[in-house]
User: Fold this.
Amino acid sequence: MTGEPLYALIHKTIKADIFAGNINPGDMLPSETLLMERYGASRDTIRKGLKHLENLGLVYAWPGKGYYVAKPEHDIFTIHFSEDVDEKKRYHAINVRPASDEVREALQLQQGKQVITIGRVIHRQGKPVSYEVKYLPYDKGAPIIETEIEYAVFPEIAAAKTAPFAFYTEMEIGAEMPPEEVVHILGVGANDPVLVMHRVIIGHDSQRIGYGKKYLTQGYGRLKALSGYGKDV
Amino acid sequence: MTGEPLYALIHKTIKADIFAGNINPGDMLPSETLLMERYGASRDTIRKGLKHLENLGLVYAWPGKGYYVAKPEHDIFTIHFSEDVDEKKRYHAINVRPASDEVREALQLQQGKQVITIGRVIHRQGKPVSYEVKYLPYDKGAPIIETEIEYAVFPEIAAAKTAPFAFYTEMEIGAEMPPEEVVHILGVGANDPVLVMHRVIIGHDSQRIGYGKKYLTQGYGRLKALSGYGKDV
DNA sequence: AAGTGGTCTAGACCACTGA
DNA sequence: CAGTGGTCTAGACCACTTG
Assistant:
């Protein structure tokens, strides 16, 4: 017990076999009973090891038949996207105005509704590399609390009245020529393409909580994404 | 037993409390012992329910202290990226030539090494919307099996001699002006920016297995990504 | 010392798949 | 029918945290 738990040994051994190609997608694993004998372990311990492989997506169980090696998913990519919170104070503008058509559609607002607009510039080594605008539906009569805004990043600010888990984000990434506003703020050339990330924050009641666009210049660098089974346990 | 398993009821109840904001990040959950009494269940059943919440990232266990509600991760995005396998046959070019500097660096090859180059155009409703080039290190004397290439998608072709799980992909996404080659092939304007996805396939021995660039025009549409706890169980 | 989660066991009954 | 995984129980010992 002092060292590695038994179930970890089990799942590591099987995982190594899969990575080495000794067993391949579609192949059947030994049954739980057989593994119990092979490892001298109880059924629960064996199951714990197999469950971990299931969670990793390496293996799946077919009740009544057995465990099988899964097909690898090499087209699912993960982006860890930091919100650059270190640059909290450089707001370009905070104000309330009627929503543009684009924003109205993204937030599914009625005509004439107002939105809180928050612009922010993100710097890297003193140079502006990114500009983002965020839009939040404005509830009439609700005061804008500046300190709240100052410390907020997008999900938190938009979901201030929502439970912290009760929403998700849909993002779309595209290449665009920078609009005039962005050319002016970031000082990029009008012919330098920018990455644009459009984000909609959606509550579990399907309510549109917030919308934002983020422009990334070449100076920001590329977005990095990962796929595969490189770093998991 | 006919309906929902007990552990599912447990994790759903707690999950609902988290989503409703009744318990919040940093809050402690009831202990296993207490939950056993509350649900009239055995410890293992309680633990199974809590384990599921842990896997979802909603909760973490601190041995000796208890279970706590985790902080939500709203800056991790997932892209499901299909390889457009339906358009297998429209290869623009397959050949072997010395690697360019860019490719040599990406694949970490020695000077003078040759690479297999595969170009492909992807159509949508009859119109070319994407062009991709893939580079594979060329082993001298190894014949290029055409049918293999014809049916292959990137990870599989690059890792043909590797176990199907034993590699991962690093991708970088940027906005660029299309190079002349792409302007010509896709018929886009020289001033229309394109999304470019650079991919490197890396084996578990850190070997560079393949490199590719994929150009997406406006006609392809934006890349879609998701974050949050919207769709999991 | 009391309480917490982490690991492990031995046994039970169930529903499902396949010959 | 025998074999498989899915669920559940009751008990044990451990290492860790807190008072």
Observations:
- Residues 1, 5-7, 41-45, 48, 62-66 of chain A lie near DNA strand C (CB under 10 Å from a C1').
- Helices of chain A lie at 6-20, 32-39, 43-56, 101-107, 146-151, 154-158, 180-186.
